[in-house]
Automatic annotation (TrEMBL):
<comment type="similarity">
    <text>Belongs to the universal ribosomal protein uS3 family.</text>
</comment>
<dbReference type="InterPro" id="IPR057258">
    <property type="entry name" value="Ribosomal_uS3"/>
</dbReference>
<comment type="subunit">
    <text>Part of the 30S ribosomal subunit.</text>
</comment>
<dbReference type="InterPro" id="IPR009019">
    <property type="entry name" value="KH_sf_prok-type"/>
</dbReference>
<dbReference type="GO" id="GO:0003735">
    <property type="term" value="F:structural constituent of ribosome"/>
</dbReference>
<dbReference type="GO" id="GO:0009507">
    <property type="term" value="C:chloroplast"/>
</dbReference>
<dbReference type="InterPro" id="IPR005704">
    <property type="entry name" value="Ribosomal_uS3_bac-typ"/>
</dbReference>
<keyword id="KW-0687">Ribonucleoprotein</keyword>
<dbReference type="InterPro" id="IPR015946">
    <property type="entry name" value="KH_dom-like_a/b"/>
</dbReference>
<keyword id="KW-0689">Ribosomal protein</keyword>
<feature type="domain" description="Small ribosomal subunit protein uS3 C-terminal">
    <location>
        <begin position="137"/>
        <end position="219"/>
    </location>
</feature>
<keyword id="KW-0934">Plastid</keyword>
<dbReference type="InterPro" id="IPR018280">
    <property type="entry name" value="Ribosomal_uS3_CS"/>
</dbReference>
<dbReference type="Pfam" id="PF00189">
    <property type="entry name" value="Ribosomal_S3_C"/>
</dbReference>
<dbReference type="GO" id="GO:0006412">
    <property type="term" value="P:translation"/>
</dbReference>
<keyword id="KW-0150">Chloroplast</keyword>
<dbReference type="GO" id="GO:0003723">
    <property type="term" value="F:RNA binding"/>
</dbReference>
Amino acid sequence: MGQKINPLGFRLGTTQNHHSFWFAQPKNYSEGLQEDKKIRNCIKNYIQKNRKKGSNRKIESDSSSEVITHIEIQKEIDTIHVIIHIGFPNLLKKKGAIEELEKDLQKEVNSVNQRLNIAIEKVKEPYRQPNILAEYIAFQLKNRVSFRKAMKKAIELTKKADIKGVKIKIAGRLAGKEIARAECIKKGRLPLQTIRAKIDYCCYPIRTIYGVLGVKIWIFVEEE
């Protein structure tokens, strides 16, 4: 029987790094973990809220804009460093956006003795990131585009990036059918068993009028 495991957790310490860097005593560890979750949720909610305000844009630009690939959190004694890795940081480059986000985070964290330091880092090759491709597919499906067409278009976008393989899987009530099923499309190599193979992965829910669809994307970046 095949044993399924998250490709990112499987490669921690080899090709994948942790997204949180801090030390805590065992009794305080759970508090630090909850604080990290609050920070990440607050940043994602802020971007979603502000995206809705300026949603009258072209389909291609709006479908994958301001998508966070991951958030790094580094904690020191008196400072919390938050590094946001984002595909197209148009929203966060606006005047006063970082200051507003810092105020929201300060309310969530409630850290009087620690100050927040937020940095924005643009991803060099956006279409190499599975989160951005998943957001693109979600946007297409919400606009009643055929799921097969959306999947093929997403794979075409990966041609702009230097990758060795990609696999996209969508499951749920596809095209509004009563019986749920899963569809998969693959291009190139995808050595999931090889630990030295750097594979990026994401699982993304899409809420449509027919119900919730699930998208899984694997991207084989390189072999170390």
